[in-house]
Amino acid sequence: MQAIYPHQYVHRETSKIMNERLFADRIINFIYSSQRENTSTLFHILTSARVSGLLAAFNYDIPLGETLTGGRKLLQKLGVDLTECVDPPATLDTARKVFERKIKYWEKRPMPEEKSIVVSPADAKMIAGSFADDSLLFIKEKFFHFEELIGPDKTRWLDTFRNGDFAVFRLTPEKYHYNHAPVTGRVLDIYEIDGRYHSCNPAAVIYLATPFSKNKRVVTVMDTDVEGGTGIGRVAMIEIAALMIGDIVQCYSETRYDAPRGVKKGLVMQKGQPKSLYRPGSSVDVLIFEKNRIQFSSDILHNRDRKDIQSRFSRHFSSPLVETEVTVRSAIAAKNRQ
Length: 338
Known about the structure:
- The protein has helices at residues 25-32, 40-46, 49-60, 72-78, 95-99, 105-108, 146-150, 155-161, 202-207, 298-304, 312-317, and strands at residues 8-11, 16-19, 117-119, 124-130, 165-171, 178-180, 185-193, 217-223, 234-240, 247-250, 268-269, 274-279, 283-289, 294-296, 324-326, 331-335.
- Helix content is 22%, strand content 24%.
- Residues 50-62 and 64-71 have low confidence and may be disordered.
- By secondary structure, it is an alpha+beta fold.
- It has one domain (8-335).
- The radius of gyration is 19 Å and the shape is globular.
């Protein structure tokens, strides 16, 4: 088995370098190591919908009894802040309930008031990039294939977003797993693309070419150039299932978590409101923007290019590629005013 290297990222609020505790790291490295990339039978079984669902049920539906896991100690070890949860801590008695928890985001995740700001869709580790060869943000096919990600038959959206910018948000299992609308805009299209259930552990990106465009995913395209919108053109939000994710539930709420409903064409979503829920595990969000419509936050770009951090992405791709931990509803980009 190949050596397992540490993976570090930058905590945005403190600028501290953090060591990530990667869940099932040795197992994931074993499955995705170069020696096993082409063992089709075992590999396809392990990344299938059925096995992913069985793993999720086994890992997440067992009660968190004191004798089994230490209950509250497990929550503390995962870094779950019980004071921000909507439901009483005593009701979070399975791992599934922990990972599908609701939080008081209206208090605990403040959002900038400026209309033209793009906010993070999730509590996640983020990297910004571009599809354009001439861009300083250019990251060539490290996380996904552009056409494969959006859908090779989706000519309209491929033309819209070609050479645009993107952001990848990696949600780890302990994170809050609701996705929130990153912009205000009208839904132009929403569709599902079937696929596998690859892990979002960095090992999957390193060992398997463009894994995020091979997974099951939901693509939502929004027009923000509408009355009251964010005003940055069209934006694609891609919610990507991963290992032990059973489903991506569309459940948009205009007020807190009240009266959730499905996301359909014509719906005007308000920035910062809950849009969907991963059930449960690790997963990835991708935002794609039209070319030259936004500017990413300078601190996120500075962190990405740091050479003093041991990122597995930097080590493998031979160039600085460092994630920044961001919180849902925090500013990650703004309208390009040049």
